[in-house]
Design brief:
By secondary structure, the protein is mainly beta. Helices cover 10% and strands 41% of the residues. The strands form 4 sheets. The protein has a 54-stranded parallel beta sheet that branches. It has a 4-stranded antiparallel beta sheet with strand order 1-2-3-62.
């Protein structure tokens, strides 16, 4: 009896199971067709220049070709699949499966079986890596006006806040306002994707904007790509540090008898006279002298191998010829070379207390030189020092004079000043230059020249150069500048990181490179690190500038700065050109013409480009990151690469792939 009663139920279950199996078989067929239709529709969409009208006919044709002529088909573009910013094609295939065996149990009609497939239009993010980034959380992040232009055809222009184009154009792979809106006035927006969280405003008559299918209303997360850079964080830690100049003291000069060379010499030197002509020769020996006086018109030769100490000053009269051979000379109480100057061979020279005066033409050989006082050269005086360490309390060169030093360290305790038409030229060695009483380490007046060789560099105060001057920095890992770097003349920056505790300003427009020095016989600035920098007034190759202040460019400055492609331990940071966390405003104005290659990172600063200034990458990579970016009055900014930080963009061949 129980079996008889159960039989109808078992028959019904069997009938439904058969019909469900038929539905599952149809689902497999629908899914295969949906996959093929999604891929075909995505390919057709690309081939039709992103025309969405091609999607449905393509998917329907695929359904018919797979035997689903009666299927209901949809084909649409969907956003943010598989990742934020991406676009995909979604196809659904729905068919009706009529009940068959289950009819015997009273089931009538049919049931729907649907399948969906999504084909990505790009295997990578549809938002290309950015080159221009504004990080302000609200208000206007990027604004153009007048004839201003921004051109980054292979990478994106992005802002967290609003983007307002009231200028000539913005051309970018993508233009993205992550949390704000985009406004276009009379100008042009050229992009493959216009993405905004708020709204897009454009005059109805202005058709110079992307078509509707290239506009997307969606929020985008935008972050600082250098916000967690470890090398950059470490570099900021040493801002404000410097290495003090080597301490200088007076030499030991015991008391001794005075020496007077003249036509009526003192008894202490009478035995050195050759004839009665005022000609003296001092043989090698150890001499302890009180005051050393050489009258005018006298010739004195100190033979090599001597050690000479002078306790109460050395004075040479006008027209005298004085030659020290290879000797060790120590002087306290003042030093006066006389109008004709003095010559010395290899050995040590140490000048302590008292006024120091060099005149005429002076030449010293190899050996250490120490002057515990200000070295002042004027009136066309020349002083050549050979290889060896050189230390001065201060340096002041002017009046068409020059100081040339061979290889060796240079220590200056209280700053150096080079006035117009004068030169200081130093060879390879470590540079430690302290500040004077006003906080300046190096001051160059108009037409002054300071040429440095390779070696570690530290300035304990500001570096300030006037229009028409020239300064050349050598190669080293890191230049330490404990103050502002203000360039109003020409400057060459060799491979290095430059750590600046203050502002970096280029306000020139005068002298440009190359330059040939009559002092060294070398030409500077035709090529720098193998790169042509001719025609620029400020140039640096394989450099990184890490500041605590702003970087301002004005006055017709012509700047060419190229970041290093690789990081150097304690030195240049890969792809980083300029970094500062300052909240002060940054201005690139007054016709400044800049070629920047690398990333300029000013995440807290409002940057303004104006007055016809241009900042371009000359066919290379440039990334600009600031709090806000405002371009006006014919200013131009641009980059010619996909990206620096964050990999390449999506400008290559697009790939199609199923993602759902």
């Amino acid at each position: 009896m129980i079996g008889a009663l159960s039989l109808p139920i078992l028959c019904a279950m069997g009938a439904v199971s058969v019909d469900l199996a038929r539905g599952y078989s149809q689902l497999i067929s629908n899914q295969r067709t949906a996959d093929a239709a999604a891929l075909s529709a995505a390919l057709a969409y690309q081939g039709a220049n992103s025309n969405a009208a091609i999607l449905l006919p393509t998917a329907q044709d695929l359904a018919v070709a797979n035997g689903l002529s009666g299927a209901r088909v949809t084909a649409t573009i969907v956003n943010d699949i598989p990742i934020a910013g991406a676009k995909s094609v979604k196809v659904t295939i729905t068919t009706s499966v009529p009940f068959a065996i289950a009819k015997a149990l009273g089931y009538r009609g049919s049931y729907d079986v649907g399948a969906a497939s999504v084909a990505s239009l790009s295997a990578t993010s549809a938002i290309a890596p950015p080159c221009i980034i504004a990080l302000a959380p609200s208000g206007v992040g990027i604004a153009t006006s007048g004839g201003a232009t921004i051109d980054t055809p292979d990478c994106s222009v992005v802002a967290v806040a609003n983007i307002e184009n009231r200028g000539t154009r913005i051309t970018a792979k993508n233009i993205v306002s992550g949390a704000g809106s985009i406004l276009n006035d009379w100008g042009t927006l050229t992009t493959s994707l216009l993405r905004y969280a708020g709204s897009f405003t454009n005059p109805s008559w202005n058709t110079n904007v992307p078509p509707a299918d290239k506009q997307m209303n969606a929020t985008t997360t935008i972050t600082d790509p250098l916000g967690d850079n470890a090398d950059l964080a470490a570099a900021r830690q040493i801002i404000g540090s410097s290495v003090p100049a080597r301490a200088i003291g007076n030499p030991a000069t015991p008391s001794g008898p005075d020496w007077t060379f003249g036509f009526s010499p003192s008894s202490t030197v009478a035995g050195f006279q050759r004839g009665n002509s005022g000609n003296f020769v001092v043989p090698a020996g150890k001499y302890t002298i009180g005051k050393l006086t050489i009258d005018g018109g006298i010739k004195v030769q100190f033979e090599s191998g001597s050690t000479i100490t002078v306790a109460n000053g050395l004075t040479i009269g006008g027209g005298s010829t004085v030659v020290f051979g290879d000797v060790n000379l120590s002087v306290n109480g003042g030093f006066n070379s006389g109008s004709s100057g003095v010559t010395m061979g290899n050995g040590s020279l140490s000048i302590g207390s008292g006024a120091i005066g060099f005149y005429g033409s002076n030449r010293f050989g190899n050996g250490p030189v120490t002057m515990n006082g200000t070295l002042s050269l004027g009136g066309g005086t020349t002083l050549t020092l050979g290889a060896g360490n050189h230390a001065f309390a201060a340096i002041n060169v002017g009046g068409g004079s020059w100081l040339k030093m061979g290889a060796g360290d240079l220590d200056v305790v209280s700053g150096m000043v080079v006035d117009g038409d004068s030169t200081v030229a130093a060879a390879a060695g470590d540079y430690r230059i302290g500040a004077d009483g006003t906080g300046k380490a190096i001051t160059l007046s108009g037409s002054a020249v300071f040429l440095m060789g390779d070696g570690a560099f530290s300035a304990g105060g500001d570096i300030s150069t006037a229009g028409g001057s020239r300064i050349v920095f050598g190669r080293t890992a890191n230049h330490l500048i404990k103050g502002n770097l203000s360039v109003a003349g020409s400057a060459l920056f060799a491979t290095s990181r430059y750590t600046i505790a203050g502002n970096f300003t280029n306000g020139t427009g005068g002298t440009t490179w190359p330059y040939t020095s009559k002092i060294t016989g070398q030409t500077y600035g035709a090529m720098l690190e193998g790169v042509d920098v001719s025609g620029y007034d400020l140039a640096g190759i394989n450099v990184s500038f890490v500041l605590s202040g702003t970087v301002n460019l004005a006055g017709g400055a012509r700047t060419k700065l190229i970041a290093s492609s690789a990081s150097v331990a304690g030195g240049a940071i890969a792809d980083l050109l300029i970094d500062s966390l300052t909240g002060s405003t940054t201005n690139w104005a007054a016709g400044a013409q800049n070629v920047f290659v690398g990333a300029v990172h000013l995440p807290n600063s409002d940057l303004t480009l104006s007055g016809g200034s241009t900042t371009l990458s000359n066919g290379q990579c440039f990334m600009l990151i600031a709090r806000t970016i405002t371009a006006s009055g014919g200013a131009a900014a641009g980059s010619a690469c996909a990206s620096i930080v964050g990999g390449s963009g999506s400008g290559g061949t697009t790939t199609i792939g199923l993602v759902q």
